[in-house]
Amino acid sequence: MQKLLIKEIFHSLQGEGARAGENSIFIRLANCNLNCWFCDTNWNDGEPLTLEEIYEKIKNYKSKWIVWTGGEPSLQLTSEIVDYFKAFGFKQAIETNGTNPVPSNLDYIVCSPKVSVHILKQNFPNGLDEIRIPVQKNQPIPPIDLLPSSKHYYLSPVFLGKEKERFDININNLNYCINYILEYPEWKLSIQQHKIWNVR
Question: For the chain, what percentages of helix, strand and coil (3-state, to nearest 5) are there?
Fold first, then answer.
């Protein structure tokens, strides 16, 4: 019986990007193939759950959106798993670091890239829905025409604070993003609003 290693499951509002404010079910998968210093998530361990057990945990939430997040969800998520939840009427999004291809039957793909542009193009040959780049002050930002095609291109200022609890907005990072977007209007600003709203 297939199991996923689950860090947590919770019901909240999407806090970032084009779907910000939408009622969503978050399924955080354990493990990651990177260890970014600014990561705000403890993804090291988890509980093995069958797909049936996951469905039992989420079936009464008043949402039809599942957001697969992590860690790095592409390490565990398959098209068969996506199909299982589609059969119950769920739409599904993924938030990935771009290091691996993702199932083609997802409804919404968000990449916060942590790899080179040529790997992104290799992993997302058909494009995606959002590219959302975590940004620090003075960080080089790739030209959009070098990136995979996307419906939305966002800059997201990195929050600071205690490791794995980075809830403090950094004004320098924010201002850098704002000034960059004023110069390059093809980009948009995405703030981690759930941290400001004080929801998960």
Answer: 25, 30, 45
Tokens of 88: 């119950």
Closest to 166 in 3D by CA, of 20, 38, 15: 38
**What's the pTM?**
0.91
The structure tokens 């970032």 sit at 16
Residue 26 makes CB contacts below 8 A (sequence gap 6+) with: 8, 9, 10, 11, 12, 66, 67, 69, 200
What's the pLDDT at 35?
66
- Looking at the DSSP bridge assignments, the partners of residue 48 are 5
- The whole-angstrom separation of Cα 163 and Cα 57 is 29
Q: Is 190 helix (H, G, I), strand (E, B) or coil?
A: coil
Cα(190)–Cα(170) distance, integer angstroms:
14
Q: What are the residues facing 149 on neighbouring strands?
A: none
Among 98, 76, 109, residue whose Cα is nearest residue 7: 76
Q: Give the residue from 70, 69, 67 showing the smallest Cα distance to 25.
A: 67
How many other CB atoms are there within 10 angstroms of residue 16's CB atom?
Answer: 19
In tens, the pLDDT along 28-55 reads 999 886 766 566 666 678 999 999 999 9
